[in-house]
Amino acid sequence: MDETPVSNLFRSIMNKARWDSERKLKELEVTPQQARAIAYIIDHEERGLIQKDLADAFQRRGASITSLLQGLESRGYIERRIPANNERQKKEFMHCKKAGRLSIRLIRFL
After folding, report:
1. Which residue has the higher pLDDT, 104 or 14?
2. For the HTH marR-type domain, which residue ranges apply (predicted)?
3. Read out DSSP for 10-31?
4. Strand partners, 83
5. How far apart are the first and last CA of the chain?
6. Percent of the chain topping pLDDT 70
7. Where exactly are the structural domains of the chain?
8. Which of these ranges, 33-37, 48-52, 69-73, 102-106, has the smallest mean pLDDT?
9. Taking a C-beta distance cutoff of 8 angstroms, is the pair 54, 91 a contact?
10. DSSP-assigned letter for residue 79
11. Rounded percentage of the chain residues whose pLDDT exceeds 90
């Protein structure tokens, strides 16, 4: 019988999963944090997600989240909109576009 400790086997499995995920993210041209942001937006967009919600969830400052969202928006993964009934407050609500949804399906499949 193989004498390899179970902890080494678990570590090997986790490393393989991480490498596979990193490879897939590289193909999609997104960082792990961008992928998490897309998934968060998809999971919470029905209630009207604003940038501050994402900053709170990821415990990041507004400038970091702004940069993250600009990158996703420029690649066509998300879009930010101001609803017609919310023009006074100018709150931008985030929505995931089709490319973002497809990417997250691929990532979650891993």
Report:
1. 14
2. 1-110
3. HHHHHHHHHHHHHHHHHHHT--
4. none
5. 30
6. 76
7. 6-109
8. 102-106
9. no
10. E
11. 13
Global pTM value: 0.70
Task: Take residue 80 and report the two structure tokens written for it.
Answer: 């930010």
State how far the Cα of 52 lies from the Cα of 72, in Å rounded to an integer: 16
Task: State both tokens at 61.
Answer: 């400052």
Token pair recorded at residue 59 = 């415990």
H or E element at residue 94: strand 93-96
**Single-letter amino acid, residue 97:** K
Q: Tokens 């690649």 appear where?
A: 75
User: Which of 98, 97, 107 is CA-nearest to residue 17?
Assistant: 107
Nearest-CA neighbor of 80 among 60, 52, 105, 102? 52
Instruction: Output DSSP code: residue 77.
Output: S
pLDDT at 44: 84
Please name the residue ranges forming H helices in the chain. Answer: 6-28, 32-44, 51-58, 62-74, 98-109
Query: Tell me, what's the pLDDT at 94?
Result: 66
Architecture of domain 6-109: Orthogonal Bundle (1.10)
